[in-house]
Amino acid sequence: MNKGVKQLFQNLLGLKGSSSTPSGMVRERGPDVIRDPARITDIMTQAMTQELPLQLHLDKLPLTYYSGFQSPEEDDPKALWISPLDPQEGNAQLAVVSQVEISFFAEKGTMRALLRVEEQAADGSIRLNWPEKLLHDTQKRSLYRVDVDSSCGIKIQLWDSQGKRLPINPLDISTGGISFSSQTVHETLAKGNRVRVQFLLPEGEESFGIDGVMLGSVAKDRIHHIYRLRFLIASYEVARRVEELVAMLQRRILQKRSRISQSRA
Question: pTM, whole model, 2 decimals?
Answer without folding.
Answer: 0.68
